[in-house]
Design brief:
The chain has helices spanning 10-19, 29-35, 39-50, 65-79, 91-102, 115-124, 133-138, 143-156, 171-180, 191-196, 199-216, and strands spanning 2-6, 22-26, 55-59, 83-88, 106-112, 128-131, 162-165, 184-187. The protein is α/β, with parallel strands linked by helices. An eight-stranded parallel β-barrel has the order 1-2-3-4-5-6-7-8, surrounded by seven helices. Bound molecules: SN-glycerol-3-phosphate.
Length: 228
């Protein structure tokens, strides 16, 4: 499973990718509005920050297929690099996905809440489908089960579309979708600290530090390298 950052803030993403093995950035209209700057500026700054090879996903705000396609092509032209247009899982979206794939665009079908939406978007040619995990849990749907069903159906039918799970509130949800076979997840930048931090790791490191210091003081292993 690969990890992506769900963010439109280039500074946050720069700090994250310096530390974590992140393979791309997703944005959505809500995330964009939080920055209170032009969408074009945000996307160009993000592209500059992550380089041309890293995935960058941005969503259309159009609702009819022809308009989605026009906007997608314009965004792709502007942002460049490894760009994915996010198309909502609607009937018009299905048409747009097919049109965009004919033009060689990379597409992420977004706002997926059911297995059938995912299957239809995959059949239309989407490269990724993005189920919203916590938003499903919020309405008492077994979100992990939905991701598992999508994974199973893709496998049963030999579909190469990948699952990019989004919308998380806790580490357990992330772990569960990974077990179900989600190929990718996207998380807000601060969430990554929750994935790596563990009190037992801190305790173990404190123990090593105390034991080491009791014998070697401030010296580090590199201060004791044997020279040939
Ligand atoms: O990218 C999808 C995600 O941002 C929506 O989920 O629950 O974090 O608003 P949520």
């Amino acid at each position: 499973m690969i990890y992506l950052a769900d963010s439109a803030n280039a500074r946050d993403v720069r700090e994250l990718i310096d530390l974590f093995p992140i393979e791309g950035v997703t944005t959505n209209p809500t995330i964009m509005t939080r920055e209170k700057r032009d969408c074009g500026e945000l996307l160009m700054e993000m592209r500059k920050t992550i380089g041309k090879d890293m995935m960058l996903h941005a969503q259309t705000m159009q609702t009819c297929a022809e308009d989605m396609v026009r906007e997608a092509l314009a965004l792709n032209e502007m942002v460049g690099g490894n760009f994915y247009i996010k198309i909502p899982a609607t009937a018009q979206g299905l048409k747009a996905i097919r049109m965009l794939k004919k033009q060689g665009m990379k597409v992420t079908a977004t706002a997926i809440f059911s297995t059938q939406q995912a299957l239809l978007c995959a059949r239309a040619g989407a490269d990724f489908v993005a189920p919203y995990v916590n938003k499903l849990s919020d309405i008492c749907v077994d979100a992990i089960g939905v991701v598992g069903e999508i994974a199973r159906e893709f496998e049963n039918f030999g579909i190469e579309t990948q699952i990019l799970s989004a919308s998380f509130r806790n580490v357990d949800q992330v772990n569960q979708v990974a077990l179900m076979g989600s190929h990718a997840i996207t998380l807000p930048v601060p969430f990554y600290e929750k994935l790596i931090a563990h009190p037992m790791t801190d305790l173990a490191l404190a123990g090593f530090e105390a034991d080491w210091r009791a014998v070697y003081g401030d010296k580090k292993p590199e201060d004791m390298i044997l020279k040939a």
